[in-house]
Amino acid sequence: SEGQRTTPLVLEAAWPAHGQIEFDDVSFRYKPEDPLVLKHVSFSVRGGEKIGVVGRTGAGKSSLMMTLFRINEVATGTIKIDGVDIAAVGLKRLRSSLAIIPQNPVLFKGTLRNYMDPFDEFTDEQLWRALKKINMMERIAASDDKLLQLVEENGENFSVGERQMLCMSRAMLQQAKIVIMDEATAAMDHDTDQLLQKVIRVEFATSTVMTIAHRLDTVLDYNRIMVYERGELAQCDTPEALIGQGRGIFFEMVTEGNYLQHT
């Protein structure tokens, strides 16, 4: 039972081929007795768009991602991906169709190869190519066991930045059309941060990317910024337009964080 009232839809193997996302009057709460943490949110994302999701703590940013993965069902409204209502999609199919790069990825115990390719779908050569793109090929090649090296409990033999990179390599191998990234709040060294952004721009150029941004400079060149406040979508426009207003939540956040020199 996957928390559904009906038999899951049978979808084409290529779904989602475009990466369009549509929220229509979506509200969300963690438990039935809880207040709404997302309130009647509506927006459309075109396939391939890069969207920054920002807001102060408790604004509803993470709840937005939870609704996409159906961690809990929505209280009102519908979410469609490439025109398909995700409430009718089997959970396993839905979650395997989206790539998430969490703030602090948990790597399960096992070999690195097993983590990168849990269903044994790719060749070693493909895995090495992915590792090269995330700048980790030399590090892995230098270890005795190479792709068969063991990942410690929670991936503790890798830094947070490296764990996010390995998560990214899985998304690259899957050729994910929708990538949801929850930026690491932990200080990531500048080089890793830059590399992560480069990978998003190059490897996911035609994919839809939604980044929950804690450091606003990482999303200042995205197509659009969604600003959440108290569970509502307060602003949605290009970064230039939002900054150009000279007021509003995003302008205040950019000014407070001294990000204006990046624009």
UniProtKB/TrEMBL annotation:
UniProt keyword Nucleotide-binding present: yes
Annotated ranges, domain ABC transporter: 21-255
Keywords from the named record: ATP-binding, Membrane, Nucleotide-binding, Repeat, Transmembrane, Transmembrane helix, Transport
SMART domains: AAA (SM00382)
UniProt main location, coarse: membrane
Cellular component GO terms, alphabetical: vacuolar membrane
Membrane topology: Multi-pass membrane protein
A GO MF label: ATP binding
Superkingdom: Eukaryota
Subcellular location: Vacuole membrane
Keyword Magnesium: no
Family assignment from sequence similarity: Belongs to the ABC transporter superfamily. ABCC family. Conjugate transporter (TC 3.A.1.208) subfamily.
Name by which UniProt lists this protein: ABC transporter domain-containing protein
Organism of provenance: Aphanomyces stellatus
